[in-house]
Amino acid sequence: MTYALAILLGAVAGVFAGLFGVGGGILFVPTLTWLGLTQLHAEATSLLAIIPTVLVGVWRQSRYGNVQWRAALVIGVASIGATVGGAQVAESLPEHVLRKLFAVLLILSATQIAWRARRKQP
Q1: pLDDT of the residue at 122
Q2: Which of 25, 50, 51, 70 has a CA 20 to 30 Å removed from the CA of 86?
Q3: What are 33-52's pLDDT values in tens digits?
């Protein structure tokens, strides 16, 4: 049952991420914690799930000529370092602090989306 729910979550999050341009982690992490994972494990699982998404996205967009390879390389290398550093910080924080920081991230993301939607209205 848990695996079926996780597969359904992946499919729904993928569709929403593709339709609305939101990161899957916004949907993955809360659901994975609801399924019983710790905040740290939910965030790590969400980061791992990004890899196939990125690979497919780069493959598809490169076919359209939309990938700027030099910029992609710089961002990719910087992301590796930032991920390692972020993981070390996440492991050093208590679970409740990490959960509250993620909640702040969700609130900031929602605020940014609402702000942009409001600005674009005629």
Answers
A1: 63
A2: 70
A3: 888 899 999 999 888 888 88
**What separation, in Å, do the N-terminal and C-terminal C-alpha atoms of the chain show?**
46
Report CA-CA distances (Å) from 48 to 51, 64, 72, 99, 111: 6, 26, 19, 19, 26
Long-range CB pairs of 92-96, under 8 A, 24+ apart, other chains included? 95/38, 95/39, 95/40
* Global confidence as pTM: 0.73
In angstroms, the Cα distances linking 5 to 9, 10, 11, 48 are 6, 9, 10, 18
* Nearest by Cα to 32 from 43, 48, 17: 43
Instruction: Provide the 10 A C-beta neighbour count for residue 36.
Output: 9
**Residue 75 backbone phi and psi in degrees, to 5:** -65, -40
